[in-house]
Amino acid sequence: MSPKLGLYKGRFDYGHRTIFEDLNFEIDKGDILCLLGANGCGKTTLLRCLRGFLPLRSGSCRIDGTEISIMRTSSLAQKIGFVFQDNGAPFPYPVIEVVKMGRAPHLKMFSSPGAHDTAIAEQALETVGIPHLRDREFTHISGGERQLVAIARTIAQGPDVILMDEPTSALDFRNQTLVLQVIDKLARAGLTIILTTHYPNHPLLHACKVAMMNNGNFIAFGSAESVITESNLRRTYGIDVQILTSQCHEGEAPVRFCVPRQDGET
Ligand SMILES: Nc1ncnc2c1ncn2[C@@H]1O[C@H](COP(=O)(O)OP(=O)(O)OP(=O)(O)O)[C@@H](O)[C@H]1O
After folding, report:
1. Mind listing the pLDDT tens digit for each residue in 194-209?
2. What is the position in ligand 1's atom list of the atom closest to the CA of 198?
3. pLDDT digit string (tens) for 86-115?
4. 197 lines ligand 1 (CB under 6 A)
């Protein structure tokens, strides 16, 4: 059986500048893959290529074995959702209408969302814990709330795969935890999720696969435990980091987490 999503010998260039090349990975239904890497290493560019927003210079990206570059736009939108880093608010629509926009790939041309689509959108708001924002104007809610609305809209889209560009970046501590729990829940329901993050502790605390990106390739790919090591973190971010373990609850496996060393940069 084909993996849910695969990239094979992927290469992308902005003009003469190669962002990544000979990049390969496969992930399956229900997997969560966390992309880590320094600012500007190419995480967003990779996500955009996987969604088909940017064309690969060479190589192939396949969903369920089908090359995405030959898929129709609506079929691709039904299969892959994308949560952008920046959720600007150009129009003062009510939040529920913004979430219903996620249903667009499922509607016939010139038709509007119906009661079924409204119910799906309301369920998506419940899933991300913001049903109380249903009738608020999208332009009058906070940046973090807009990020949660964007996630709800993508859930309402009903894709098999969700690509999320720094989904926790604008969120407070509670909502970061909430979004990571939502991601766990979606994966348990069979969705495949790829997210970028700047917090190595997130994948350590929420066991998932990790790809560490550096110099246009993955320097490590695998379980959080195997990839998030002191030496990989030093190589990627150029600082000394210490991995600590703590027994939070008696009888449960110890939790691993990383902290920068106090004695500074390497
Ligand atoms: N449209 C563009 N044209 C040319 N270069 C670009 C363009 N977009 C991004 N870049 C460059 O490509 C490189 C990769 O950018 P990208 O946004 O993918 O990195 P990133 O890892 O997501 O960064 P961050 O963690 O800061 O969000 C960066 O050096 C960036 O300056």
Report:
1. 999 999 999 988 878 9
2. 25
3. 776 677 899 999 999 999 888 877 778 889
4. no
Q: Whose CA is nearest to atom 16 of ligand 1?
A: 42
Contacts with 148 (C-beta within 8 Å, 6 or more apart), sequence order = 128, 129, 130, 133, 171, 175, 179
Query: Is 129 a member of any domain?
Result: yes
The CA distances from residue 113 to 7, 73, 106, in Å, are 34, 19, 9
Of 169, 177, 120, 163, residue with least CA distance to 147: 169
In a domain, residue 199? The reply is: yes
> Residue 108 gets which letter from DSSP?
P
Is the residue at 250 inside a domain? no
Parallel, antiparallel, or unpaired: how do β-strands 161-164 and 192-196 relate? Answer: parallel
Full residue range of the structural domain in which residue 30 is found: 5-238
* Number of separate domains in the chain: 1
